[in-house]
Amino acid sequence: MFKEIRNKYIRYISIFLYCIIIFFCALQLNFLWLFGYSPSYKDIKAPTQSVGSELYTSDGKLIGRYYKENRTPVSFKEISPSVIEALIATEDVRFYSHMGIDFRSLLSSGLSTATGDKRGASTITQQLAKNLYRTRYNKSQGVIKHIPVVRTIVSKLKEWMTAVKLESNYSKDDIITMYLNTVSFGNNAFGIKTAARVYFDKGPNDLQVPESALLVGMLKGTSVYNPIKNHEKALERRNVVLAQMNKYNYITKDQLNTYKNTPIQLKVGSVDDGSDGDSYLRAAVDKYLEKWADDNDYDLYEDGLKIYTTIDSKLQKYAEEAVADQMKIIQKRFYSVWGNEDPWQDSEKKKVDYPDRAMRKLPVYAMLEKKYSNTPDSIKAYFNKKKKMKIFTWKGDRDTLFSTMDSIRYYGKIMNAGMMTMDPFSGKIKVWVGGIDHKFFKYDHVNQSKRQAGSTFKPFAYLAALEAGMSPCDKFTDKPVKIAYQEKGKTEYWEPKNADWNYSYREMSLRWAMGKSVNTITAQVTEAVGADNVVKWAKECGIESPLQAVPSVSLGPNDVSVYEMVRAYSTFLNEGVRTDPILVEKITDQDDNVIEDFKAKTKRVLSEEIAWLMLYMLRGGMEEPGGTSQALWEWDLWKKGNQIGGKTGTSSDYVDAWYMGVTKDLVTGVWVGCDERTAHFNNGATGEGSRTALPIFAKFMEKVYHDPSTGYTYGPFPKAKVKITRQIDCPSPRVRVDTSSTDSLAVDSTSTDVPIADDQQPVLKEEEIVKTEEKKTPEPIKQPAAEVPLTRKEKRELRKKEREEEKERERIKKEQEKNKPLGK
């Protein structure tokens, strides 16, 4: 076709231009995979930035972010003019006059390079193309990346092409805004908004001229000119930028002299509260949305989502305060109990060498064992070598000299906690406290950790009894029981003991027995309804962990999570409808367009009558004589007829302490214990649920009730909406002296240790019981007379008696252990 052009010069020029066009087409299309990726028209029209997602509470408070590059985009109007002027004066003085490529600057740069003065000629638009579309990344390059000079030329040409495309699709203001939102300012600060907050703790529209010059100056080298790390270099570079601004008439000579003599005044900040650190909640939401993100092709760390959790910021704050306040007390108590003695011991009270076991589990131990196979002392020397370390304390993080073994021993004695509060009607999780400090303890004690539920599992036995046709007034006797079970084809026997190691031989209603947490009656109920049915109804209510249907199942030997227990107890308050908890309410894009609304899944598993009866049973912990929740009297929780249902729980050897609290609006679960199970309290006075976990619930609810803005108020549980057909009006006799203040499993296992001889059984005396006056006209839903609260004087006397009897029980228990038969 070129032969028709007779003029050879025109013909050669035409061939040259044709080859250039073909070359650029091949470049754009990545012909034969030679050139790598080039942005398409669609990419140019919809540029993507790696924008972190923001995490909010339900009331709109920013509490965290997910990001690979810590960036929050802003509009042109939100950027101080001095930033724009400093950028143009320093990086691209003809920005508003060129078409993306500054040929004049290219020529000047080429001449300078030829004379030995290397300097760049990239325009702001070219730099945007490089940053936005990663044109120089390996994945953007094709086969020619292996040819050094050629790959550089091709990368530059792709930047030119992309720059021209950007210029043809966006205004100059849009381009400079995208650039300032994209570029890195060091210290993991991407974009001008993040940089302004990180270095000066202000918005980008509030930046003064020296501050703008400092940030723009950093673009030449974010490490070299970092004002935090290299103050002098940063000051020198800032003044160069100020000189450029004066040269191009953005500031006067007098202003230049003033600004150059202004010292750098940093005010290191963060993007927003909670945005620069990790947390249990942030990690939990990440896990919660993992499947949703995969199914919907979203990346929390790059797609700039706004995630609105169900968390109530006020309730979360009060919960964290309650946990911190109580855990300081518990930790001090734990140290006081053990003193200089190691706390690690098994169920037989034999010492366990936990530090050695923990050391051997470390990945580095196997490597050292191979390296020093003939010199084991070298391994010990490695783990006992002191080094600088920051450790957790309740008085704040502390720098110290610790060896690895010191660290293992120290953290092996730290008590931890998990707490979750849920609105059972909507399924919204209002509080999530995964532990005492996420920086030092990453393991989440709400959902990751599973521990023995202890007596908090007992309600499922009584639920199975109600489902079997029993009523809260059905009675069993607190007496020794011997339950047969099969193990490996052999008949074994389980003989549960009460927490105080005594039997009252008193006939008790189911409500009284559950409120008082009587192990022997719970065991009888379990035997009557079948362990399989206890497991069945626990599963129906929301327990998903594996449960062994053993005779002791109702006493909580199985490991479960706080999350599961809260979901299960919520079924009772939600009229028998099991509601799966939700942690995220909705997700929007940067423009607040809703991407996803989350609704809780529900399923009716109990009748309304059974659910109401379970609430009535749970109230027994406060209302029945000797109820294990009565320590709640110490807090300001009893106004306007307020009612609280709850259950304490303590696993064997006081390893795990629980409290499950239910009000008319919320269900809360609290667990307290040490991550290392062999570290635990040694008696009920210091380690049972009513003295460790219950106060956290009490302090939390007191704070919630005292703040009217939370919307949660005192008040009774809802009245039954259906006819209650079971008998509930059976007032329990009021015992003058409560003999069951503890709520531990004691020996809640399938062992038959510590039998009590017949001559040790207490005999119930008539004068120990003061019967309440029977009601003449019982009403189906009326509270029994035993619900009348004691006076403050009576409460103090009762607590004094409880402490005295606790000491006596401990003395008796120690004597019984001394007389324990050998071989059992």
From TrEMBL:
- Domain Glycosyl transferase family: start-end pairs: 60-245
Question: Which pathway does the UniProt entry assign to this protein?
Answer: Cell wall biogenesis; peptidoglycan biosynthesis
Q: Does the keyword Nucleus apply?
A: no
Annotated region (Disordered), positions in chain? 732-824
Chief localization? membrane
List the catalytic activities from the record: Preferential cleavage: (Ac)2-L-Lys-D-Ala-|-D-Ala. Also transpeptidation of peptidyl-alanyl moieties that are N-acyl substituents of D-alanine; [GlcNAc-(1->4)-Mur2Ac(oyl-L-Ala-gamma-D-Glu-L-Lys-D-Ala-D-Ala)](n)-di-trans,octa-cis-undecaprenyl diphosphate + beta-D-GlcNAc-(1->4)-Mur2Ac(oyl-L-Ala-gamma-D-Glu-L-Lys-D-Ala-D-Ala)-di-trans,octa-cis-undecaprenyl diphosphate = [GlcNAc-(1->4)-Mur2Ac(oyl-L-Ala-gamma-D-Glu-L-Lys-D-Ala-D-Ala)](n+1)-di-trans,octa-cis-undecaprenyl diphosphate + di-trans,octa-cis-undecaprenyl diphosphate + H(+)
- Composition bias of kind Polar residues appears in 738-753
Query: What Pfam families does the record point to?
Result: Transgly, Transpeptidase
Please report the stretch or stretches of sequence annotated as the Penicillin-binding protein transpeptidase domain: 421-665
Recite the UniProt keywords alphabetically.
Answer: Carboxypeptidase, Cell membrane, Cell shape, Cell wall biogenesis/degradation, Glycosyltransferase, Hydrolase, Membrane, Multifunctional enzyme, Peptidoglycan synthesis, Protease, Transferase, Transmembrane, Transmembrane helix
Question: According to the UniProt entry, which residue ranges have a biased composition of type Basic and acidic residues?
Answer: 764-779, 790-824
Record field: transmembrane: 12-35
| Subcellular location(s) of the protein | Cell membrane
Q: Which domain of life is it from?
A: Bacteria
Against PANTHER family, the record matches this protein to: BINDING PROTEIN TRANSPEPTIDASE, PUTATIVE-RELATED, PENICILLIN-BINDING PROTEIN 1B
Q: Which family does it belong to?
A: In the N-terminal section; belongs to the glycosyltransferase 51 family. In the C-terminal section; belongs to the transpeptidase family.
Q: What is this protein called in UniProt? A: Penicillin-binding protein
Q: Which organism is it from?
A: Pedobacter gandavensis
